[in-house]
């Protein structure tokens, strides 16, 4: 009987980390999850093997990663807070863990690497000239992985949404009021498209890539196309349909309020930095991914949004 492969997930109580952990389990992996308080975290997914550790404590991450084939770096500073002080130090712990056991490090990437000048459609080789602090940190994280020499898999995707995402543009920006959907806010300019990534599809794609370890280069980067809408109003309208409120009003996002309050609030300041992604299209070309896998998990948009709203308690 073939022994299960084992993965360590850092950030398994978060949106992307938790979804990758579930997808790994569904793919037959044994999954270990790191948390400062594993007893408390166990309720989020009792099927995982929860171990004590801190993403900022390299020694505890190395111990937790003993014997694993993959380290999933799904840790993110909550609410955009203190990215500069936390993101790279947490990544260093994951690098140490992957290096210690020869594991592959999986990093969920973003579109933040790309600045406003990159063009409307970008592939994995497009130049990365970010103009935001968070974008610069994302580029620095990827550069550090290449310098470290560990086996690396980076999968870049658009804005996350899904039934278990709390910190997301959909949940906090487009549907900021709790309870059933009464109104929808559209952050984009009229006619501007946007890239969205349904987390269960993205996680399943990552697990399919990991299953082909023998075909991966030492450092591999893929773009996940996800759900592209040519006009983000179409995404807002799909939210209304999924909520069963097809006539709910769609309002422009209150960017003037964000601009006014950003100097006093770190989360709003970070949101303001990313405004260019709502003012011009930036689509991730996934030709390489489709050529490598053949097919990619693609849940229909309305179905994905229904599951998302149900998971968030918004239907």
UniProtKB/TrEMBL annotation:
Record-annotated NAD(P)-binding domain positions: 11-160
By its UniProt entry, which InterPro entries does this protein fall under? NAD(P)-bd_dom, NAD(P)-bd_dom_sf, NAD(P)-dependent_oxidoreduct
Q: Return the SUPFAM superfamilies for the record.
A: NAD(P)-binding Rossmann-fold domains
GO molecular function, one example? aldehyde dehydrogenase (NAD+) activity
Q: Where are the transmembrane segments?
A: none
Pfam family membership, one: NAD_binding_10
Residue ranges the record marks as coiled coil = none
Can you list the GO cellular component terms from the UniProt entry?
Answer: cytoplasm
Gene3D superfamilies assigned: NAD(P)-binding Rossmann-like Domain
- Could you identify this protein by its name? NAD-dependent epimerase/dehydratase family protein
Q: Provide the species name.
A: Sphingomonas desiccabilis
């Amino acid at each position: 009987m073939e022994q299960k492969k084992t993965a360590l997930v850092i950030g398994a109580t978060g949106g992307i980390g938790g979804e990758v952990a579930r997808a790994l389990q569904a793919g037959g992996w044994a999954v270990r999850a790191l948390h400062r308080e594993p007893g408390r975290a166990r309720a989020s997914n009792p099927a995982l093997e929860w171990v004590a550790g801190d993403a900022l404590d390299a020694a505890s991450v190395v111990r937790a990663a003993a014997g694993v084939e993959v380290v999933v770096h799904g840790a993110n500073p909550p609410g955009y807070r203190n990215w500069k002080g936390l993101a790279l130090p947490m990544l260093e712990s994951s690098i140490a863990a992957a290096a210690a056991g020869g594991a592959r490090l999986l990093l969920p990437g973003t579109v933040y690497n790309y600045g406003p000048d990159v063009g409307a459609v970008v592939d994995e080789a497009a130049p990365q000239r970010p103009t935001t602090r968070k974008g610069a940190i994302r580029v620095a994280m990827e550069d550090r992985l290449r310098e470290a020499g560990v086996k690396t898999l980076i999968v870049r995707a658009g804005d996350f949404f899904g039934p278990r995402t709390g910190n997301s543009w959909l949940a906090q920006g487009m549907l900021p009021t709790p309870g059933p959907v009464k109104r929808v806010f559209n952050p984009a300019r009229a006619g501007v498209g946007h890239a969205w990534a349904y987390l269960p599809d993205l996680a399943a794609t990552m697990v399919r890539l990991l299953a082909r370890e023998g075909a991966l280069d030492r450092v591999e980067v893929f773009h996940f196309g996800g759900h592209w809408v040519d006009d983000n109003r179409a995404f807002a309208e799909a939210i209304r349909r999924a909520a069963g409120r097809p006539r709910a009003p769609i309002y422009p996002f209150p960017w003037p309020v964000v601009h006014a309050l950003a100097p006093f609030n770190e989360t709003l300041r970070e949101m303001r930095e990313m405004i260019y992604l709502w003012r011009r299209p930036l689509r991730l070309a996934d030709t390489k991914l489709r050529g490598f896998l053949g097919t990619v998990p693609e849940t229909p948009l309305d179905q994905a949004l229904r599951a998302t709203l149900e998971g968030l308690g918004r239907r």
